[in-house]
Amino acid sequence: MADPIKIIDSLIKDVKNVDIPNPGARTVNTRGTDLDICWFPKCPPGHTDYTWWGEEEDYEIVNVVEPKSSTAKANSNAEGKAKAKGKAKGKGKDGEAKERQNSKKQKQNQGKRPKGKNNAASDTPLFARVDLRVGHVEKVFEHPNPDVKKLWCEQINVGEDKPRLIASGLRNFYSKEEFQGKNIIVVCNLKPSKLVGFVSNGMVLCASNSDHTKVELVEPPPNAKPGTRISLQNLDVNEFEPDEKINPRKKNSVWLQFAPKMATNGEKLATFDGVKLVTPEGDCTVPTLANCIVK
Predict the structure, then answer these.
(1) Closest of 162, 198, 154, 214 to residue 179, by C-alpha
(2) How far is CA 169 from CA 71, 154, 205, in A?
(3) The model's pTM
(4) I need a labelling partner for 198 at 20 to 30 A (CA). Which of 59, 87, 190, 209 fits?
(5) CA-CA distance, 206 to 179, in Å (whole number)?
(6) Are 155 and 277 within 8 A, CB to CB?
(7) Phi, psi dihedrals of residue 215, rounded to the nearest 5°
(8) Cα(125)–Cα(263) distance, rounded to whole angstroms?
(9) What pLDDT, on a 0 to 100 scale, did the predictor assign at position 290?
(10) So what's the pLDDT on residue 117?
(11) Within a 10 A sphere around the Cβ of 255, how many other Cβ atoms?
C-alpha cells in the first residue's frame, strides 16, 4: 500500500505546476472567451453587474410613494383643516379687512387697460389701431407767438368732454373763416407734441399734391357726428380698441406702417390701401385732389 503522505505531496506538486489564473485580477477583459466560462461566469441569479463585477448599473432609481391608507388620508385631511382654522384665527379683523380691499381692487381693475403701453391686441387690423374721428372745428386762432405765420391753432370737438387744442400748418391754404365751422377728420391717438411752444393734441388729416403747393382737408359728410370713429368700407373699427398712444417718431411706430397706405383715389375719396374711408353717414372726400397722398 502506497504511503498516504507521499500521495498528498505528489498532488501538491502537481497542483503547483498548473498555471491557474487569479480570479481577482481582471487585468484583461476575458468575458466572452473560454476563460469566461471557467473563471468569470456570467452574472449569476441574485446578482447585478454592479454586485458581481463592481460595475455601475444603467438602471434609473425612481422614488416610489406608497399609497396612503384610508386612516392616513383621514388624518392628513384633519391636519389640513386644523391648519386652515389656525390661519384664519391668526388673521383677525385686520387680515379680513385687507382681503376685502384686495378683492375690491381686483374687481375695479378688471377690464382696465394698463397705462403707458400699446394695448391693441396682436390681431387688431392696422387701420383700427389708429384712432381717426370726426371733428368739428369750433374756433380758429393765431399762434400765441406772433412770429409764427404758418400755423393755425384750433379748438376741435371730437366727442370728448371739452374741445381739443390742435395746431395745423394750414395758414397758407385756408383762411380763418374757411377753416372754422368745418367737419374734418382728426388723428386722436398721436402722442401730443409742441409746435413752437403750443401743445398740439392730435393732427388734422389732409390731402396734398406731390410738391405740397396745394393742401385740402379730408372732410366727412356734413351731418357726421363729432367723435364718430372712421371705418373702412370693409372694416367696422368699433369692434376693436385703438392703440392708447402712437409716437410717429419711433422707428417701429404703427404710424410709419399706416401713413404710406393713405391716399385719395380717382374719385377724390379718401382711402386706406385702396379701400374707402367711411362713416355711417357716407364717404370721406376732398374737394379736388384726386390720386394724391393723405397725411
Answers:
(1) 154
(2) 84, 11, 11
(3) 0.60
(4) 209
(5) 12
(6) no
(7) -130, 135
(8) 18
(9) 97
(10) 46
(11) 21
Distance CA 260, CA 294 (A): 8
How many CB atoms lie under 10 A from the CB of residue 171?
Answer: 18
CA atoms of 279 and 281, how far apart (whole Å): 5
> What cell numbers appear for 249 in the block?
417718431
How many Å apart are CA 290 and CA 117, to the nearest integer? 37
Q: Cα dist. 256→65, 187, 263 in Å? A: 61, 14, 14
Q: State the SS3 of 125-182.
A: CHHHHCCEEEEEEEEEEECCCCCCCCCEEEEEECCCCCCEEEEECCCCCCCHHHHCCC
Beta bridge partners of 185: 134
Query: Measuring CA to CA, which residue among 14, 254, 29, 225 is closest to residue 126?
Result: 254
Q: Is it the case that residue 265 has pLDDT exceeding 70? A: yes
- CA–CA dist 111, 119 (Å, integer): 12
Contact at 8 Å (CB) between 55 and 49?
Answer: yes
User: Cell triple for residue 257?
Assistant: 406702417
On the question of pLDDT at 207 being above 90, the answer is yes
Q: For residue 278, what is the DSSP state?
A: E
Give, rounded to a whole angstrom, the gap between the first and last alpha carbons of the chain: 131
Q: Count H helices and E strands in the chain, helices first.
A: 7, 15
For residues 94 and 101, what is the distance between their CA atoms, to the nearest angstrom?
11
Nearest to 207 by CA among 140, 285, 132: 285
